[in-house]
Amino acid sequence: MLKQGEQGKAMTNITFNTEVEAKYKQTMEDDLVNNFVVRFANTNGTGSASANNMFAKAILRMGLPVSAKNIFPSNIQGMPTWYEVRISENNYLGRRGGNSEMVVAMNAQSIAEDIESVKSGGYLLYDSSRALQDNQKRSDINFIGMPISNICLKEYSDPRQRQLFKNVIYVGALAALLSMDFSLLKGLVRDQFKGKEKLITPNIYALELGYQYAKEHFLCPLAIRVESRDLVNNRILVDGNTGTGLGAVFGGATVVGWYPITPSTSVIEKFSSYCHRLRIDPASGKKNYAIVQVEDELAAIGVAIGAGWNGARAFTATSGPGVSLMTEFLGLAYFTETPMVLVNVQRSGPSTGMPTRTQQSDILACAYASHGDTKQVLLFPDSPSECFQLTAQAFDLAEQLQTPVIIMSDLDLGMNDHLTSEFSWQDDKTYQRGKVLSAEQLDEIEVFGRYLDVDDDGICYRTLPGTHPDKGAYFNRGTSRNKFAGYTEKSTDYVDNMERLSKKFMNAIRYLPEPEIVQNKKIAQLGLIFFGTTSHPIVEAIDQLKEQGLVADSLRIRAFPFHANIETFIEEHTKNNKHVFVIEQNRDAQMKSLLVNELQIDPNRLTSILQFDGLPVTSNFIVQAVMSHLDSYQQNQKTG
To answer: What is the Cα gyration radius of the chain?
Structure first.
């Protein structure tokens, strides 16, 4: 290792563990180029998110697959926040977990925790304006001290500028330390502040301050570094809520009932911003959409149901607490057969829970939402591009099936940026409005009954208000009714209606996206079932299992009710002492319970892998759970 003064360069404020650094150098070409995690530790509300995001985008522009996770508190300002950027040449885009090769520690409150989060042999870039205590230091990591606060005191007189440019300065330093393409960072600044040219020069200057300081004082690049590749393949870095909001625009939504709640608020914000660009009448300048911010979640879903009954494509967005309040109205929409879409961006519950942590814990609450016998249609996107696709499709499904359709997103998918395929749309696509009678069709039929099952598929014909001056009107009610929408308490009418609704629910399967099944040419010993963001670490987990000599097939659930091939997959993979694992992010194995209940499967044929700590599930967690179960099974076989 170079020591202070070598090559005419003063390596100040840097403490390398020579033995550890040498070990890193030996494995650099195999493991540490384009394959590591950078973890940023900041204070919430200090403007760090945009700087950290700029770092991730610069890596992406170098042609490298990247995934970013923002781990932030539920308060507005002052608490510790973390931002993890995983760089993976192997296209592993799930959260890796464990300690990080590089930690950028800019928060004195969390410095002890941040030091502990550095992987042995890794690096801690910290603000050395305030010296570390001796008891905070570790002998197995490398400390890179940079007096960022002092630099800001010297360069800026405005306290706010000192805080904001502190973030930009450490990004510039990382560019030197990790051998990033500095020109890409400057390009990102120009893109970000396009139209605000006065901000471009000071931000680039702050980047250069950090870059030059690192070049002059540190050994650059480090053992961990990046090299340009061409591995992105036209994918984009975007969050799921953006995909959902844009999908609602392309799906034809014109009415939103809205009450803000984390982490779904940005769905409506994105919908609003895209509508402002795409839904303004060019002749009059008037809006061709309505966003109604109401007093609570009940009113929000009420607006969506009312608009859906009136013929508009309408939706609302919420999270778990909002779903709890909306369940009675979901039952009303189910029973009156009124189309509408609900976007549920799940978070950790119950009650307020952890509002800024992710989870998949509303599965049963949504599948059987409302009192009485109800079953709701669910869609499970796993990427921003699928958020776009399935949200647009949800409006077709809601009208074809005349029922609520619930998009089951989550905080990780909704609020974090993900590398995803570009959004695609067919310009000649026509909306599927389902069985809606026109005035001409009403004139041709002798008798109209809102709940007459003419086609024997459980889906009846409906009319929209004002379609015909004399025909097609009916009273929409949440009470029991006969086939002509007339009030009744006759048991035979009630049973007939409930059985027809059940038939419709099962026939819904033919409209829904099929599960994604990947089967190996070799006979697999394992089957992995998962859904939503639990899919992100699966490819890596399967590769890790293969290293253990285990071949795994996989099935990603995309919709409820379940397709028949899900049951077939379970049957095939539980024969001859094989094992099927259901991986989900909740405590109570809700998806397993839904599979067991709906497919009438012996629960002993399915093994749960459950993570519910509020952080995205990792491949290491999945593999460890699989191996632990197999070890226990083998021990029981020996002793049994």
So the answer is: 28
Residue 614 phi, psi (nearest 5): 95, -10
pLDDT band at residue 20 using 50, 70 and 90 as cut-offs? low
C-alpha distances (whole Å) from 374 to each of 39, 227, 388, 500 are 45, 54, 27, 12
Task: Please state, in angstroms and as integers, the Cα–Cα distance from residue 99 to each residue in 111, 257, 279, 381, 410, following that order.
Answer: 14, 43, 47, 29, 24
| Rounded Cα–Cα distance for residues 528 and 573 (Å) | 9
End-to-end Cα spacing for the chain: 57
Helix (H, G, I), strand (E, B) or coil at 369: coil
The whole model's pTM is what? 0.94
- CA nearest to 64, candidates 91, 84, 41: 91
CB burial of residue 430 (10 Å; 0-12, 13-18, 19+): exposed
Element (H, E) at 41: strand 35-43
> In which region does residue 270 sit, left (phi positive, over 0), alpha (psi from -120 to 50) or beta (all else)?
alpha
Q: What is the 3-state secondary structure (H, E, C) of 283-297?
A: CCCCECCEEEECCCH
Query: Taking the alpha carbons of 625, 626, 632, 636 in that order, is the dihedral positive or negative?
Result: positive
**Torsional sign, CA 177, 183, 184, 188:** positive
Reading the block at residue 486, the tokens are 């007339």
- Copy the structure tokens of residue 166: 């502190």
Task: Report how far residue 375's alpha carbon sits from residue 271's, in angstroms, rounded to the nearest whole number.
Answer: 28
Rounded-to-integer distance, Cα 238 and Cα 256, Å: 23
Q: What CA–CA distances, in Å, run from 246 to 10, 176, 267?
A: 52, 37, 9
Rounded to whole angstroms, the Cα distance separating 316 from 267 reads: 9
The C-alpha torsion from 626 through 629 and 632 to 638, rounded to 10°, is -80
User: Which helix or strand (DSSP H or E) is residue 223 part of?
Assistant: none
User: Parallel, antiparallel, or unpaired: how do β-strands 377-379 and 559-560 relate?
Assistant: antiparallel
**pLDDT per position as a tens digit, 80-126:** 999 999 999 999 999 998 999 999 999 999 999 999 999 999 999 99
Q: pLDDT, tens digit, for every residue of 370-396?
A: 999 999 999 999 999 999 999 999 999
**Strand duo 14-15 + 142-146: pairing:** antiparallel
Instruction: Tell me the two tokens of residue 542.
Output: 């399967």
**Choice among 63-72, 260-269, 495-504, 514-523 with the minimum mean pLDDT:** 514-523
- DSSP single-letter state for residue 132: P
CA-nearest of 146, 97, 65 to 621 is: 97
Identify the burial level of 483 via C-beta atoms within 10 angstroms of its C-beta, where 0-12 means exposed, 13-18 middle and 19 or more buried. Answer: middle
Q: Residue 29: what pLDDT?
A: 43
Note the pLDDT of residue 522. 79
CA dihedral (386, 389, 394, 397) positive or negative? negative
Dihedral sign for Cα atoms in the order 306, 311, 316, 321: positive
Say whether 242 sits in a helix, a strand or coil.
helix
